[in-house]
Amino acid sequence: MRAAYYDRNGLAADVLTVGEIDTPRPQAGEVRIKLATSGVNPSDVKARGGSRKPISPFVIPHSDGAGVIDLVGMGVPPGRIGERVWVWNGQWKRPFGTAAEYIVVPQALAVPLPDKISFEAGACLGIPAMTAIHAVHLAHAGHGATVLISGGAGAVSHYAIQFAKERRATVITTVSSAAKAKLARDAGADHVIDYKTENVGERVMAITGNRGADALIELDLVANAKLIPSVLRPKGTVVVYGTGGIEATIPAQFCLINNIRLQFMLVYEIGQDERDRAINGIMRLLKDDRLINNVALTLPLKDVVAAHEAVEQGKVAGNVVITLP
Questions:
Q1: Does 23 share its domain with 156?
Q2: pTM value surpassing 0.85
Q3: How far is residue 169's CA from residue 162's CA, in Å, rounded to a whole number?
Q4: Residues of 91-121 as b/e, b for ≥16 C-beta within 10 angstroms?
Q5: Alpha-carbon gap, residue 167 to 105, rounded angstroms
Q6: Are residues 138 and 251 located together in one domain of the fold?
Q7: Among 33, 45, 156, 254, which residue's beta carbon has the most beta carbons within 10 A?
């Protein structure tokens, strides 16, 4: 089969190769998926760059993807053959991810994909959508609550806006351009703040009547921790799904005096009950055709380097997806 892979960490252009490798076969409890698409996420490019060391002898990157089950292992119902599915945790703690024509995973990691949902959209659900819906749950973003979502045009935040609105929360979000502001509004954001031209804290306080937001869903704690005192109410919650660096300086005294709750989350490691709730929530909106899947860039497998560079350099607002041959 054709696959992209690397055997050492480094720049995408230096370490990523596209070539022929053996096609895997499923073991007991596993399914093999003929992949149509593979999602490229920031965690994938960070892993390739060195945040996780390669698993010998090489790594096929990417945890997200979508395609059709073509073979099943012992103990898996044969009726799953031919099923359209989306994949999560494809390359978490295993060497071979979705940047290939085929992937073998435990059957629970292959979730049915409705016929009306494209494979490109399906490749966005594993990390971006599941992170977003779990973050919204942890933020208690429901009716009567006001939640501030950082970077509303980003892959995770764009979904988070939709899930928070589905729960009837008031959503404030930040962006850096008019084009990104439109993406955030189209997703349902009630208030959009351009952090390059506006004072985020002043705008949040004006919107909330000087009360502050009930929760903040944060993609980069290193860059944005300093905003917490100016945007969050006493006893508010900060849900952190990204740090942007190894260490962050937080406003500890403000957080202590105001009983602020800091909740970190890593979508790869959430519990089974949390996973089931997230999948059920995503599937409900997919089936009702109420989920906007922002596929911003689609490239063929041969252009995997360009796909990694686009994610790494923040060239696109939304999800980057690779199509498989």
A1: no
A2: yes
A3: 10
A4: bbebebbbbbbbbbbbbebbbebeeebebbb
A5: 32
A6: yes
A7: 33
Greatest Cα-to-Cα distance within the chain, rounded to the nearest angstrom? 61
Distance CA 267, CA 108 (A): 16
Tens of pLDDT along the chain (325 residues) come to 999 999 999 999 999 999 999 999 999 999 999 999 999 999 999 999 988 777 778 999 999 999 999 999 999 999 999 999 999 999 999 999 999 999 999 999 999 999 999 999 999 999 999 999 999 999 999 999 999 999 999 999 999 999 999 999 999 999 999 999 999 999 999 999 999 999 999 999 999 999 999 999 999 999 999 999 999 999 999 999 999 889 999 999 999 999 999 999 999 999 999 999 999 999 999 999 999 999 999 999 999 999 999 999 987 899 999 999 9
**Segments forming the whole domain that contains residue 241:** 127-268
Phi-psi region of 37 (alpha: psi -120 to 50; beta: other; left: phi over 0): beta
C-alpha closest to that of 40 among 325, 316, 251: 316
Residue 279 lies in a domain: no
Whether residues 133 and 263 share a domain: the answer is yes
Distance separating alpha carbons of residues 248 and 287, to the nearest angstrom: 39
In the numeric block, which tokens belong to residue 221?
């704690």
Is 27:58 a contact under the CB 8 Å cutoff? no
304, 18 contact by CB (below 8 A): yes
CATH of residue 208's domain is 3.90.180.10
Query: Cα torsion at 320, 62, 287, 161 (round to 10°)?
Result: -60
